[in-house]
Each structure stands twice: as structure tokens, then as C-alpha cells.
Write the C-alpha cells for this entry.
Amino acid sequence: MDFGSLLVQQLINGVSLGSIYALIALGYTMVYGIIKLINFAHGDIYMVGAYVGFFAITTLGWGIFPALLVSMAVTGLLGMVVERLAYKPLRHAPRISVLITAIGVSFFLEYATMYFVTPTPRTFPDVFSSAGITVGGFVVNGQQLLSFAITLVLMVILTYIVQKTKIGKAMRAVSFDTETAQLMGIDADRVISITFGIGSALAAAGGVLVGVYYNSIDPLMGIMPGLKAFVAAVLGGIGVIPGAMAGGLILGVVESLVSGFLSSTFRDAAAFAILILVLLFRPAGIFGKNTQEKV
Amino acid sequence: MAAMLEVNDINVYYGAIHAIKGISLTVDEGEIVTLIGANGAGKSTTLRTISGLLTPKEGTISFLGQSIAGVPAQEIVRRGISQVPEGRRIFANMTVMENLELGAFTRTDKDGIGQDYEMVFQRFPRLLERKEQAAGTLSGGEQQMLAMGRALMSRPKLLLLDEPSMGLAPLLIREIFNIIVDINQAGTTVLLVEQNANMALSIANRAYVLETGRITLSGDAKELAASEKIRKAYLGG
């Protein structure tokens, strides 16, 4: 392949990988936006999502779409349970306590999963073997199409919820100023719980798509994508929803280009180099902005 | 007839700090009552306690005959008390219209909400012009109007106003206070917290003077405005 076609092919790979990062990054950014917590257990929520999808497909024999929906529902519920049991009692505790708890939840989910399903990696069944399409000599395979299409649909739905619905407006209000939101009659605890539910459901979709894409899942699969999605969220501006979408895509593309043109060994290094650069030069991220209060 | 709002000997703490030391006050239906006092006297804390953001350690608060001490803030709004918080606290990253929608969060009566948007825009025509603008781009006075309009959207029986004059030019302060009188005459009872004692006493029926967590004086607003002690301490002469 010549340079140009390699570039385009890597961009295609990057966008589909990046759309999965974006799905996970959204949960990070929504939770951070609303309770200022970096939920380090989020990557493990994504892993649980992949397993729920896996069992829905293998044990129950369901197709990819019902499995995806069930995984989102079950994992969304798990996210709400985690919030209720682990984070809610710490609502007025120092932020560091909640952060440490999040790391504890992360270990708990990883090793509880190992206990129940063994640490052995599972082969994700080939549920979406569509031939894919060839555009001008470039191959977009079925899995890439699937992950890109599903991500797109979920993002449109999420944007609609956040921008147009009553619960979405309540989420933005609680995220901007929890106390004033309560003065409007908004039950902040309920809104926070729903935010965890939505964020976890999106991560679950990412988990199932990764299973389909890479054909393999294991209980520790959430660690690296979790960190990468965190980088994506910071890159886009933590707390900003379109930022997480853009950050995920940019990160995916950069990683693919680095693997394609340098070496895949540098892939992870590239992701974390981005984190360092963002923190050095634009800590608020691409879409991050400081709104100033008028007095 | 019992008072609309009855605060009875409440004690409120911020951690170890005893911020409110046994305050009692009443607000009757239809009144404008003002709570004046220096910075840090406990005026905002009193409003925040009535709104349910803080829980009194001792004492009772009743509204329309029902106890509301310890009832969560989101529930207090449903009972008919709405607050315009200190510093306006508008949702700066949302539009003017979205801010008003959030004010009506507890309501489901579409027609009534629609009428109340009209009412708010009639009272604050400048908000209508800036309906789709991000609230953070409004001027200080417009933000105060938005905060008031937003509080009215829950159709409160009792409106709590915390320092509506803060940071505003004298002309605007006058405008805001005229609007408070209008709102009151349209049937909403008002409990007003102010550092600008002059303005507050000029529109209120009754007043309470707060000093370091205690009520030191109370009575008819006109009489207090005329009293030597108040003139010296709060009215600059």
C-alpha cells in the first residue's frame, strides 16, 4: 500500500476504535460533570457490559441487537447500584475518599468477575460477520461499520436526552449547580443515579462492541480502555459531553496512525503522551471553557 | 388565623459553628417581611434553612400548618416556597428559556406553565428579548430578573429573596424593588433578606433585625426605619 491509502485505511480503523473510546469516555465525563468524581471503576463497568453481552449471545443464544440492549440495561442498573452503595454514602466526604472508593470498586468488579466466570479469556462469538463494504479500494469491515453506526445512534439519542428532555435539563442543572437545582425542585440524588445508569449503559455498549471487534474478552479488559477513555474525556474537556465524543475519536485516530506509521508498540505511549500534553498546554481540554459569573 | 410561615426558636450549625441561635419569626399571608442585618448575621442561613438546604438542629418550622423542618429542598418547592438565592445562581450555561423551564420543574400543567411564561415575560420584557441567549451573557440586573422569573415559575405562595440588590446600580435596585412590590400585590407573600436596609424597610410591612445569629429587634417597618438605633446601625445616619 502506498502512503495515501495506508493513511485512509488507518483513519477508518481509528474512527471505529475511537467511537468505542468515545462511548466509554461519555460515562466518565457525565459522572465527573455531575459529582466531580473520576470514576475509576468505569472501565470495569464496561468489562461487565461485555460479559453480559457475551452470555446473552452464548448462553441465551440471542442476536447481537437484543444482547446489546440487555447488556446496556443490566449494566446500567449495575452502575446505579454501585453509585447507591459505594458513592452515595460519601456525598459529603472529601473527594479523595470517593476517588479511593472508586479504585476499590474497580478491584471489586474485576475480581468478583474473575470469581464467577474465571480469569480465562473468552472468545466472543462471531455474531456480525457482514462482509463489510469496499469504498474505492478501502475496506470497512462489518464490525467497524457496526461499532460506528451504533455509536452514532447512541450519541444522537444521548444528545437528544441531555438537550431536550426534562431529565436531561435536570442533569445539566445539577451538574452546573446542585444546590440551586434542588431549589428548583429537582431531586439531585435521583438525577445522579440516572446519570450513572446512562453512563454505564453506554460503556456496556462499548464493551459488547469491543467483544465483537476483537473477539476476545477477559475480566481485566477494562483497565486499559478505561484509562484511554479517561484520556479521551480529559482531551475533550472533562465534564463536556461533545468533548468526550471528539476526544474519543481523536484518540482512536491518533492511536491508529501511530500503529500504522510508527509501530503498534508506541500506541499506548501516544495516548498517554496526549494526556501529558493536554495537561501541560490546555488543562481544560479542547471544549473546556470557564464560564465567568457576573456580580 | 395562624401565620403562613412560622419559624420557632431554630438553631442551625455549620459543623461546629453555631450560625443561628434561636431565631423565631412569622410571615403572614400577603405580607412583605424583611430580615435585615450586617454581613454574617445569619440572614442567608435562615433562608437556606427555610428552603430545606439546611436542617435546624433544634426548633420547628411550619408552613401553612405543616412542619417543614428537615423536609428536603426539592420537596419544599412543591409545598409552595421558592427562593431567589444570593448571587442569583442562574444556570449560566443554559438559555434564558431553559432557566425558566427549570423553574417550572415541579409542575406538569402545560397550560398553566405557558401562562406563567407570559406573566414572567410581561414583568421582565428584557428576558423575552434574550429568550434564546445563554443566561451567562446577561447583565447583572438581567440575571437578577431571570432568577426572580425562574423562582416565580413554580407559582410559589411564599417567595424568599436573598439580597436582590447585591451588586446592582441604584436605578436598577429601584426597578427590582418595584417589581417585588408588584409581585406581592399580585398575591405572593414575600420574605426579603437585605443588607440595603433603607430600601428593604421602604417596601416591607414588618422587619426583623438580625445580629450574629439572633433577632435583636422586630416590628413595623416604618417604625423601625424611624428608630434612632436602626438609623445609626444600618441606615448610615
The beta strands of chain B are 5-14, 17-27, 32-37, 58-63, 66-67, 81-84, 158-162, 189-194, 206-211, 214-220. The first helix of chain B runs from residue 43 to 50.
